[in-house]
Amino acid sequence: MGKKHLENADMAKAISRVDGRAKVTGAAKYAAEVQLQDLTYAVLVGSTIAQGIITKIDTQKAEWAPGVIAVISHLNTPGVPEYKLQNQDVIQKQLRVFDDANIYYNGQPVAVVIADTLERAQYGASLVSVTYKKEQHVSNLEDNLSRAVVPKKAKADPRGFTSDFVRGKAGAYLDAEVQVVEEYIQPSEVHHPMELHSIIASWEGNDKLTLVDKTQGSQQTQASIAKSFQLKPENVKVVATYVGGAFGSALRVWPHEIVAILAAKKVQKPVKLVLSRGQMSYMVGYRPYTLQKVSLGASKDGKLVGISHESYGKTSMYEEFTENVLQMTRMMYDVPNIDTKYRIVPLNVSTPAPMRGPGEATGSFALECAMDELSYKLNMDPIALRLVNYAGQDPDKLLPWSSNYLKDCYRLGAEKIGWNNRKAEAGTVQEGEWKVGYGVATGTFGAFRSAATIKATYKADGTLLLQSAIADIGPGTGTAMTSIAAENLGIDPSLITFQLGNSSFPKAPMQGGSNSVATVGSAVVAACTNLKVELAKRAAKQKQEWNNAVPANIQLKGNELVNSDDTASKVKLVSLFTEGGLTELVIEGSAAQGDERNKYSFYSYSVHFIEAHVHELTGVVRIKNAVSVVDCGTIVSPKTARSQLMGGIVGGIGMALMEEAVIDDRTGRTINASFGDYHVPVNADIPQMEMLFVNEKDPYLNPMGSKGLGEVVIIGVAPAVANAVYNATGKRIRHLPITPDKLI
Ligand code: MOS
Questions:
Q1: Is residue 724 a contact partner of residue 610, using CB atoms and an 8 Å limit?
Q2: Is the CB of 709 under 6 A from ligand 1?
Q3: Would you say residue 48 lies in a domain?
Q4: Which alpha helices (H) appear in 128-183, and where do they start and end?
Q5: Which of 180, 184, 262, 503 has its CA 20 to 30 A from that of 739?
Q6: Whether residues 279 and 293 fall in one domain
């Protein structure tokens, strides 16, 4: 058997992004670029206090300003019908836009100005004057740990990852020979996709709405808006043909989308609302600031005896946001005793949101740094420590893994980074003024699939159109789906068009939780199979032997339908359309989750290796090399998969070294709400990277054998960096980001 795993050179041969040309030439239109007749422009006015009540809004100057069509606030909102219906005793699901005078966070929308141009709307917004009765606010997590609560969700799901949990004995680490007890802090991080969140809302009469919107789920936004405005779902059309990044920020409907719809209702014209880069910092979620306490206990040979892990994360005053920070702790290592505790702290901030590798990216930082700390205490190689504690089955669900090639990830990555060059003692390798170190960390994320349908239109000219409501926020979903269909049918990818991002296309999940390929790909396979069956049925009228054709053996080669390379049975594809004078065949294919989750535990895995150089005098960290190996089953689209992994490493380096949304606790305001002040890696920060995939099929999740990829690529990168910095310097930084001031 030759090698199966994919390295850089293998991936270069794969098909390129099907929409790459449209994107780089500007032909791809993102939501804010769409032009409509009579388009008007909306600009939000945000609260300047973090807690209190609006006592007065003076809108007259704004209303008299040139070009301003309307100003809306809680005093004159057309209203959101759902707010009147909603039962107040449940956790409030979203900020109720312009519903009353209450302020819960700094920046909360208090009014919107609609004008005939963007500039006039901006000027109008500057003229709205709001008076408040200010109350004491709270925004700092550490100062408010006494406000921590068990999320309501935990009570509903006692086995869930947010519930207090004990396996074996609680606090068992205290009995172990070697112990690590530490606290780790992950600051708030903002998604900051390149494309600003944007929406164009237009009403047709009182009951039909069209939205051109940045969303990760056209049909989920459709359902949510239909509910809010009490419309028939089929009367709400959501279009999101191109989405310029999201990372979780577009998984739900946010206040600015409701505002745009209210505004369009008020002015009876289409309204465009684009958030500013600053508003992106607090209007569309963020990875919440989280404090974790990790206690590990192990015997001298490195076998883990017990883990205790607590997590305290920020949420807003009006909504409970939770994430699976503690999932990895429960399933990654073979440990007899585990106890976990998850709390959220309601503060005067906007609601957080899932952000790439939600929960796990945060949890892995604490767990995988603690494992590294343990390795030094044991004087044991960090990879060896992980192998000693490798779990042969899921110790949490007590089910076999569907597939798990973690050991291959450790081996391949160690080889590529040159792990042999690592010195066991920290702070001992020097190159000029730079200290040199190596770090490793593991990541994991659940692998899922849900339900989807594909509509396939196969034309007599040999072209195939596939349609799905799924969004593509950047991973290259159209490319992956085209690859799956091309391979399944045996046709050239250039004959296939994949249309997505429209609520009127067939059912698809949100693009979130790394399940697009597993879900929609399965429906593509089903549609291709159904198409082959239909073509074989038609072929059987010409040649009887097609009655027995098995779909797996059927290929659409050149302009012929071929069964298992049996030359005699070939029929011309075009001849299959003549019956009924058809020019196209329209076929559907659907796929959904089966009962596989009762039998197996599904996870993707990643192992990240970092070589870091730390400048002794300035504390500057330079990443010299990054190697990541991912086990996410079969890679269906190597080029775009590689690009996803590259993005994960870059995001992880940002998380480790730069990203931090800072709130001034005196005002509750985000003070680095711009790309000038909120730092993300640029080209010069990004080193040599190696992206590798184990590329072994998962037999149980879907017909392609693939597992999710989008999240697992970032999970574990930040601790790998922190561990490399420690190996280089002997300085353990437990509060991200690792900025130079923390190292000197
Ligand atoms: Mo992902 S955080 O589910 O967009």
A1: yes
A2: no
A3: yes
A4: 152-156
A5: 180
A6: no
Q: Is residue 206 part of a domain?
A: yes
Residue 1: the pLDDT is: 39
* pLDDT value of residue 92: 56
Ligand 1 centre distance from Cα of residue 189 (Å) = 14
In a domain, 22, yes or no: no
Q: Is residue 150 part of a domain?
A: no
Query: Which of 105, 104, 103, 97 has its CA nearest to residue 131?
Result: 103
Give yes or no: residues 344 and 265 share one domain. Answer: no
State the CATH number of the domain containing residue 457: 3.30.365.10
Strands 304-316, 337-347: pairing is: parallel
Q: By residue range, what is the domain housing residue 347?
A: 156-190+289-392
Q: Note whether 166 and 279 are same-domain residues.
A: no
356 CA closest ligand 1 atom index: 2
Helix (H) or strand (E) holding 134: strand 129-134
User: Domain containing 208 — which CATH number?
Assistant: 3.90.1170.50
Q: Any idea what the Cα angle at residue 141 is, between residues 135 and 146, rounded to 5°? A: 80
Answer whether 0.70 is exceeded by the pTM. Answer: yes
Of 195, 320, 360, 711, the active-site residue reads 711
Asked if 532 and 551 count as a contact pair (C-beta separation under 8 A), the reply is yes
The per-residue pLDDT for 251 is 97
599-611 per-position pLDDT tens digit: 999 999 999 999 9
pLDDT tens-place string over residues 130-154? 999 999 999 999 999 999 999 998 9
- Which residues of the chain, if any, have pLDDT below 50? 1, 88-89
> From ligand 1's centre to the CA of 323, what distance in Å?
11
Residues 98 and 47 in one domain: yes
Q: Are residues 264 and 361 in the same domain?
A: no
CA of 511 to the centre of ligand 1 (A): 7
Number of domains in the chain: 4
Ligand 1 contact via 247 beta carbon (within 6 Å)? yes
Residues 349 and 279 grouped into a single domain: no
- 161 and 223 share one domain: no
Q: Which residue's alpha carbon is at the smallest distance from atom 4 of ligand 1?
A: 248
Pocket test for ligand 1, best of 215, 220, 247, 284 (most atoms within 8 A of CB): 247
Whether the CB-CB separation of 191 and 286 falls below 8 Å is answered with yes
711 catalytically annotated: yes
- 161 with 52, same domain: the answer is no
Ligand 1 atom closest to Cα of 358?
A: 2
